[in-house]
Amino acid sequence: MGTSFAGCPFGVVAHSHGKFRGLPQKMDLFGSHFHLHVETSRLNFYPSSVSTSTSKGLVSRLCSLPDTDDFFSEKVPTPILDLVENPIRLKNLSPNELKQLADEIRLELSYIMSKTQKSLKASLSAVELTVAIHHVFHAPVDKILWDVGEQTYAHKILTGRRPRMHTVRQKNGLSSLTSRSESEYDPFGAGHGCNSISAGLGMAIARDIKGKRERIVSVISNGTTMAGQLYEAMSNAGYLDSNMVVILNDSRHSLHPKIDEGPKTSISPLSSTLSRLQSSKSFRKFREGVTKRIGKGMHEWAAKVDEFARGMIGPLGSTLFEELGLYYIGPVDGHNIEDLICVLREVASLDSMGPVLVHVITEENRGADNSQKKEISYKQQEGSSDPNSLPSKFHSRTYSDCFVDALIAEAEKDKDIVTVHAGMHMEPSLQLFQERFPDKFFDVGMAEQHAVTFSAGLSCGGLKPFCIIPSAFLQRAYDQVVHDVDRQRIPVRFVISSAGLVGSDGPMQCGAFDITFMACLPNMIVMAPSNEEELAHMVATAAYIDDGPVCFRYPRGAVVGMDYSICCGIPIEIGKGKVLTEGKDVALLGYGAMVQNCLKAQTLLAKLGIEVTVADARFCKPLDIKLLRQLCRNHEFLITVEEGAIGGFGSHIAQFMSLDGQLDGRTKWRPIVLPDNYIEHASPTEQLALAGLTGHHIAATALSLLGRTREALLLMC
Fold it and tell me: What angle is formed at CA 253 by the lines to CA 237 and CA 110, rounded to 5 degrees?
């Protein structure tokens, strides 16, 4: 193999003793600059990839996974990847071996994608970049942070988690994000994007205060460049001038927010040469030396000339980073490992460099070569029992589909209806509205704060905005909801998608809190549909309300009914619930999608001779006071059920019942809500069971209230 071709920023000493023979027992990783001796025999990089601080519960969870022999039995050989158990193994690889390693990782990801039917395109684009980062930097001592989880699968493979990659997003499996509790190579959890620079800057300042020398690398993507926090962090990084590296993985070849409107950034031999020059230590020293020699009066002029010259070289928009205080380098070919390592090695070797942004151009659809694609295609033809592999004509109709149909029906009747969408991804069904009303659809990307205030402005201009934001993303815009909408009683119609549990997306996109934080606002009308028909009615109701803000939530997943005809909604009376079935023993009051589980519980209890009333609350605010008093008057036991956190619908019920004296008499009330913890990724059915929100759990709660504990236990067996 020979000695590694790329020098390392801290003077790494890493010699090879023959092809693929592993590393010496001791390595001086940081030479004279950073005195840290590492004994490979003492480091626990593989296979558990769990830090020593991890709880015993997590360790047992990670070690109790199914056998992977069947999953990988047909996999194409990957000889170099098989030897890379952790990033230290990359240090001895030659340029050609690193290229082969990248090809093998891409093949591995393509194979996993074909078997699991999960898209890994974002990670496929970042394979060479990930290899280069781990070759140059020294994780976990150096901190590598990622903005979004979709880019990190190659990182996971290289950091000891390869044997369990097929368990991503499954119960007890790997997280789709970076996770501090999962691996010591994940110094910070990737959330909804745009957090890596802020967190990285905090780590850099902490490093400086403590007198340490580790490198901080934050990797961002095109999607996160729409978020305001990113620019707040860049501005602060430029002001504080602490050493850190920001890498923009540009898979769209454009810094323009709308890819169809912006010019494409291309890579040429000239741009590659200039990027190497920009990153070189000699160029930086020459630049700083010239600046020091000229007088103060010429300093500002020289800086402007330098910025202008490099702005002419760089793509449109690159000078923005310079204005924020980051030294811009790029564009760099994100699939040329030699160029990547050269630039990153130079950047890592600079002392007192301040924040640097390296603009890397990648291709999201970059996959394996033709022979590898044929192999993947053959494997796909052999068949997978995964229902996700079924043709699209078998696609179940979702709540989102029904919402868009109802919204289109309303928009055809009311020319003032417009739509604003914010979040990481746009649901495919929304494209129907965009195609039908292109001038009335605004997708602002990951700019939720802007989306809310923009909607308020549209409303003040006489339009009727429907502001569509997933529940977990609406959290980022709460200040705007309070001050720019609710406090001013501006009629913005908030459509909260992905409400409640979200299955394989786990706690990051779980919509657990919107009932609580929206229902506490004084002027907000808060409602939730129990099925697709109710959803259409609430769209019509929201369009009708024009004197204040309103919100309604709907979950992911398939709708209840099988009637796929477009339902024209009819406005419903504000604060009016309804009774679905009547009984005399127990009352179940459901909110939103949980009404369906209340009906399942009613069926189970009916088999045991228990008569149950099931009511659909429809509204959390204002509550149907008449319905509540009726349920308390006619039943000794009342159970409320919601797919939301503590402090939501059930808390509003408790507030009213206690003040109204309903809890002073014979009525016994029990709330069923999401547990006070984050529920990890699993299938929707598994998550509901973990949360205690299935029909069986609701029925068991009723049986316990009735004193039939044994039957309750048998029901849960």
Answer: 105
